[in-house]
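Lay summary. Proteins are chains of building blocks that fold into shapes, and those shapes determine what they do. In this project we predict the shape from the chain. Here is one chain we studied, written as its sequence of building blocks.
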Amino acid sequence: RKEVIYYNDSNSDIYLFFGTTAVFGTGTILIRGQQLISSSYRGVVTAIMDTGKTGNLQVTDNIL
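And here is the predicted shape, written in a compact code that computers can read:
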């Protein structure tokens, strides 16, 4: 994996967790419309958003 791009395409904040189970209100926060580029972490990533909210977390995994 060269890099991963996480983009919050929802109407709510999304919390990302690297290596642990997602817990609302803690972790790395992505506000609406924000992106995070990760080029070093290669493990499990989990995400969570507030109950009742809708949207998507877009993930682009570049392996070349």
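What the prediction tells us: The two ends are 7 Å apart (CA to CA).
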